[in-house]
Amino acid sequence: MLKSVVRAVGAAVRMSSATTSTARALPLSCPTLCSPCSATTRPFTRSLWMLNSKGASSGYRPKLFSSKVLQPTVSCGCGGLHTEGDKAFGDFLSDELKEEKKIQKNKTLPKLSGGWELEMNGTEAKLTRSVSGEKISVSFNVNNSIPPNFEEEAEQGQQKSAEEEPEIVSTPNFVVEVTKQASKHSLVFDCHFPEDEMSHGEGEEESDIFAIREVSFQPEGDTDWKETSYTLNTDSLDWALYDHLMDFLADRGIDNTFADELMELSTAIEHQEYIKFLEDLQGFVKCN
């Protein structure tokens, strides 16, 4: 009963903070930004120029991004433009890559408990498993899954040591698809990590760290969410029905433990993709 009450309160919060959803594709690619919880995290080291007293709010940019026109110098046979700014940019990327690789916690992607199999397609990930004849898949995209996290000290220009820097975690939207044998349609859940349900105080009953945004029946195997199929929005849903939907997912292994492990996996994938992007950017700047 207490669990139902907690979810009822969560549903009320969702009603007050509901936003209009946009057209989607499976998997979703616009994750909700929220605070990190117990998943694997790493120091927030990106865009460090914003952390000084003349950061983004003042329109200031470091000398690296100065608008001053620099004379090109040809240093290779690629035919591209090469400037002193490009050299400084390349040196900066070399240092950045060293730091990111130093703090990388997962050299290999962590495995989820419960027998989930992972498929990767760039920044998209798909987890699948079978339970008593049912096929369950969970899809997510790590793009835009890192929330901004600039604290008051950063706005005041107070630099922090590496140990004191805030940590970040990837919290992507994810889509759960449940397919039964001999069924032409799959039951699809659009889920996310709402900030107001990410934590709870000591002594309180554990609440759900993820929430269902929408539920719909979709043709099995289709990658596009068909807007012609009826979609149940949970913002104004009766709490008892919502509770049963959450229990339906929990019975199939989609619970708080799974959500924690998914964030850990997503964080590791996102960090790998970020490092790969820096390497590609360095090669592009240097024409390697």
CATH 4th-level superfamily of the domain at 74-145 and 168-197 and 206-287: Mitochondrial glycoprotein
CATH class of the domain at 74-145 and 168-197 and 206-287: Alpha Beta
Task: Label the overall shape.
Answer: elongated
**Based on the structure given, which CATH architecture of the domain at 74-145 and 168-197 and 206-287 is correct?**
Roll
The proportion of strand residues reads 15-25%
- Give the low-confidence spans: 15-25, 27-36, 47-67, 198-204
Strand elements, count: 9
Instruction: Provide the spatial order of strands within the biggest beta sheet.
Output: 2-3-4-6-7-8-9
Helix percent reads: 25-40%
How many separate helices?
5
Major sheet description? 7 strands, antiparallel
The CATH topology of the domain at 74-145 and 168-197 and 206-287 corresponds to Mitochondrial Matrix Protein, Chain A
> What is the alpha-carbon Rg in Å?
22 Å
Distance between the termini: 62 Å
Structural class computed from helices and strand pairing? alpha+beta
Organism: Seriola lalandi dorsalis
Pfam families: MAM33 (PF02330)
Subcellular location: Cell membrane; Cytoplasm; Mitochondrion matrix; Nucleus, Nucleolus
Region (Disordered): 144-168
